[in-house]
Design brief:
Blueprint (H helix, E strand, L loop, with lengths): L3 H17 L9 E7 L7 H5 L3 E10 L2 E6 L2 H41 L1
Antiparallel strand pairs: 1-2, 2-3
This protein binds zinc ion.
Amino acid sequence: MASVELVRLQAEKFRLWKQLRNYGEFMRGSMVTLKRPCTYRGCRKCAEGTKHPTTYYSISRKNKTELIYLPKRIQARVKRLIENYHRMNSLTDRISELTLGIVKLQIKERGKK
Ligand SMILES: [Zn+2]
């Protein structure tokens, strides 16, 4: 027989699982701004040390990080994709914890027999 706690955990798990479907596209990684020097001789910004802040998308895999230059027109889109990834990741973490709670209850129920 399902306990009240089990029903509560399953309902919460289903509620979060439905939220996952709200996210379409997502992308793991981050956005970084690096100050790069240019090749123009006599550049005032480079001489002052402020250089040229440039935005990149950064993705780390095992032992290699890939940097991809992001033109301004695509930065907002990439930012949204990364935010979606973090929201989905946080949701799947919570769903995983709820599932663990359910498994723990099911272990306890078995123990009674
Ligand atoms: Zn420069």
